[in-house]
Design goal:
three-stranded antiparallel β-sheet, 5 helices, elongated
Length: 117
């Protein structure tokens, strides 16, 4: 039987994962991330793509920034947003770990079914 090592719920890696998945849970934020991974955009340019206020888009960008999925820098009066590929790859790794756990559980389930034939 497989035994999994679970980390303490409040560890820094869990907090980071919580911020990542919270940020990615929203359709608009996922779209902003996709656009910012394709190239750097000002928040004003990003806001032009969505039927919401500039302030609402700023809040979405702030959530993505707290999750380290995007970085912001100032260019004159504009805030420029760029996607962070390293954090996206980290997220892919987290999802791969979850997939590994579930695949092993499914494999074990199949073994139990075969034993009971």
């Amino acid at each position: 039987m497989l035994i999994y090592n679970y980390m303490v719920v409040h560890s820094k890696s869990h907090q980071k994962a919580d911020r990542l998945f919270h940020a990615l849970a929203d359709t608009t934020r996922r779209d902003i991330l996709m656009r910012s991974l394709q190239g750097e955009h000002s928040v004003s340019t990003l806001a032009s793509f969505y039927p919401m206020s500039f302030a609402a888009v700023q809040k979405h960008v702030a959530v993505l920034e707290r999750a380290e999925l995007v970085t912001k820098r100032r260019r004159g009066r504009e805030q420029m947003v760029r996607g962070d590929v390293a954090t996206v790859l980290y997220t892919v790794g987290l999802l791969a770990q979850i997939e590994t756990v579930w695949r092993s559980r499914l494999d074990r389930f199949a073994e139990i079914l075969m034993e009971n034939r």
